[in-house]
Amino acid sequence: MLQFAHPEMIYLFALVPVLMLLFFLMRRWKKRALAKFGEPNMVRKLFPDVSVSRPGFKFIFILLAFIFLAAAVCGPLIGSKLEEVKRKGADIIIAIDVSNSMRAEDLRPNRLERSKQVISRLIDRLDGDRIGIVVFAGDAYIQLPITTDYGAAKLFLSTVEPDIVPRQGTAIGAAIDLATTSFTDSTKKHSAIVIITDGENHEDNAIDAAKQAAEKGVRVYTIGMGSVNGAPIPIYNNGARVGYRQDENGSTVITKLDAAMLSDIAEAGKGRFIRATNGDDGLDIILKELDALDKKEFKSKMYTDFENQFQYFVALTLLCLIVEYLLGEKKSKWFTKLNLFGVKKKEEA
């Protein structure tokens, strides 16, 4: 299992393509500069000992040295032992609305991106709890089965977009039903569903679904994304906004937060409704609610005894620099004398 002691330094690897671009620009400039002195083949004959390929090989070793050094700075931690550990926490499934109405921008930068920010911060503050992700629009789908791997949860969260579901709509009830059946605990008394949506439910009876979940021991919480006044739904093409969605009469569609619906769902699910605003996303409130849940003890396997292996990457860095230093700019006389392909030299007349 590989982790990094300083994951923020991983951005150093973004300099690799920059260095490659600078090298190719430098090679291009040198070619143009030599072309001013005469025909390239003639110029090369004036400097027979200068190797054409050596600068490229030297750059490769310099680039490898930089990559290994960047890896060393990141502090690679390798888990040497897989152990079964006991944790105590609750099971939480986040159901996030990915319908087109979540593109509305009455919350900055828009409802969906603000929802993902809330979930990301929620994951950062969980301790021992298991988490799963369900996405829904016209139907509901499991994005991430319930797990203790918070890194995987963030990775799957980053891929959540309206385009990942085949049918648009808002089926909150289907999301509740799917989340309820996704809990592995048969009693479900340690479980909670957090629904993040604008509340515009057009597909099913979400209140009945919340009641049935509560009867099984699952609490249902709702976080409302959007404003009461509403906002238009932008249309994007290649990342650029080209207009707003319109109805069949040509009028701009305004999507509004249905706070009453979300409040009724939370009440039926014995949970709580929190409305997110630009100033307060309600994360502290929902965390207090989740902390109050009954915790259960469960076993999970995880890597322990992580050791920093930076020294190996430092050694590889030094090795690459030594090879680059020994690899001169001129052709190797020994290699020139070594006639690998048996080419016969022409006798001088």
Q: What features would you describe in this structure?
A:
This protein is of the alpha/beta class. It has two domains: 2-75 and 309-337, no CATH class; 84-301, Rossmann fold, CATH 3.40.50. The protein is 38% helix and 23% strand. The chain has eleven helices and 13 strands. The chain has helices at residues 15-35, 40-46, 54-74, 111-125, 150-157, 172-182, 206-215, 259-268, 283-291, 310-326, 333-337, and strands at 2-4, 76-89, 91-97, 130-136, 140-147, 191-197, 219-224, 231-232, 234-237, 240-244, 254-255, 273-275, 296-308. Strands 5-4-3-6-7-12 form a six-stranded mixed beta sheet, with helices on both faces. β6, α7 and β7 (219-224) form a beta-alpha-beta unit. The longest helix has 21 residues, at 15-35. It is elongated, with a radius of gyration of 30 Å. The relative contact order is 0.16.
Helix content: 25-40%
The fraction of residues assigned to DSSP E strands is 15-25%
Can you tell me the number of structural domains?
2
Q: How many E-type strands?
A: 13
Secondary-structure content class: alpha/beta
